[in-house]
C-alpha cells in the first residue's frame, strides 16, 4: 500500500512540472540585458561543486537565450537568459561518469537558477535540465 501511495505521489509531482509557457507569459518577465561573462560565472559555480573541476569536461551547448518557466509546486518561477551546459566530471574513483545536462538561468550577470548537476541531482532537476536544453536548441540524447 505504501509503495502505491509513493508511485501515485511521484506521478502527480512529475506531471505537475509542466514547464511549457506561452509567448504572452514570456513577454511579462523582466530579463535585463544579455549576460556577457556568463561562461566565467558558470565555471566559477562548477569549480566549487564538481569532484575534479580541473579535469571536468564542460561544453557550452546553447545560449544565452531568453528562457521562462512558470512556477510549479516543486520549483519556483525561473526566467532570464538560459545557458545549456553538458558536463562530464570524474567520480571519486577518478573515472569519468559520462555527460549530463545542466541549465543555468542568469539575470544581471548572476546565476539565479540551476537545473541538474551536483546540487540538483534528482529526477526533477534532470527533467528541467533536459527540457530547457532542448528548448535552447541542444537536446540531450544518450
Textual characterization of the structure:
The chain has 142 residues and is of the alpha+beta class. It is built from 4 helices and 4 strands, in the order H-H-H-E-E-E-E-H. The protein has helices spanning 2-15, 23-27, 38-47, 123-136; strands at 57-69, 78-88, 100-107, 110-115. A 4-stranded antiparallel sheet has the order 1-2-3-4. The longest helix has 14 residues, at 2-15. It is globular, with a radius of gyration of 16 Å.
Inertia-based shape: globular
User: Percent helix among the residues?
Assistant: 25-40%
Structural class: alpha+beta
In total, the number of strands is: 4
Query: Which residues sit in consecutive blocks of at least 5 with pLDDT less than 50?
Result: 12-16
Helices, by number, come to: 4
How is the main sheet built?
4 strands, antiparallel
**Mean pLDDT metric:** 86
Short summary:
It is built from four helices and four strands; from the N terminus they run αααββββα. The protein is of the alpha+beta class and 142 residues long.
